[in-house]
# Entry
Amino acid sequence: MTDNLPMPAPAPLTKAQRTSIANLVRRAARAEILPRFRSLAAHQISQKTGPQDLVTDADREAEKMIARGLLHLFPSALIIGEEDVSENPEILKKIEGAERAFTIDPVDGTWNFAHGLTQFGVILSMLRFGKPVFGLLYDPIMDDMVIATDGAPAQMLRPNRPATRLSVSGGGALKDLTGYVGLHHIPEAKQAAMAATFPSFARSSSLRCACHEFRMMAQGHVDFVFSAGLTPWDHAAGALCVMRAGGHVALLDGSDYTATAPRSAYLLCASDKATWNRLAKLFRFLLDSPKEAKTAAG
# Structure
């Protein structure tokens, strides 16, 4: 008897749907992002929370185009766009109950983009009840993308070339690791202590662009990405891509990552479980309250 055997989970997206989404992102980049690159006037750049947190006309218009295209493909989907959430934060509460939700970061690395640097990209994910099941990390300059689907290996897609399967690095001892840490997202009271961990590694830095940091890790070029200030549009796709490239992904407290993780949580992606454990032990002080950290420091 096999009637009670669990049925395999259906693929979150068909190949045709994935192709349609990839083409939509490419069209949005060509129509709304690349024509504005290094051509923005001062009135086309605005601050959100401060001078390090920018939004441009490219962000707004690309998000609108991608959102319209997704709703054409998936009329009942929940759309979570970074710029829309700035105006309608209550929409985030709908993620956990949504069978199909898409997150959009139309120009990740906006500060870089606004200052003429090429380290920017488009991030898109599909969530099922908050769990990432499809992720896309697109580089408009090189016109290539890292994609991942739940249950399948992460791949690099380039125009007119075969897809390439991606694998993370081999990890290792702390002194041999290279990785990315966004220090500015860590609470101010703990930034000095976090910076003091940097000499433990061969190299630590930040690209100011989660899209390219996760892409680098999925390709095996760095050993870890440590993220604070979590948002679903910044981290859901990258977490899935790293996981499907063989990495170990979890919140710093050891719990599974979902797109409903609070902004105050920390996401640690490492090449393997052993490397993750070494890093988590080093960063564990971040889970203490600022008052406890100050006391411990004397």
About this structure: Confidence is low (pLDDT under 50) at residues 1-10, 290-298.
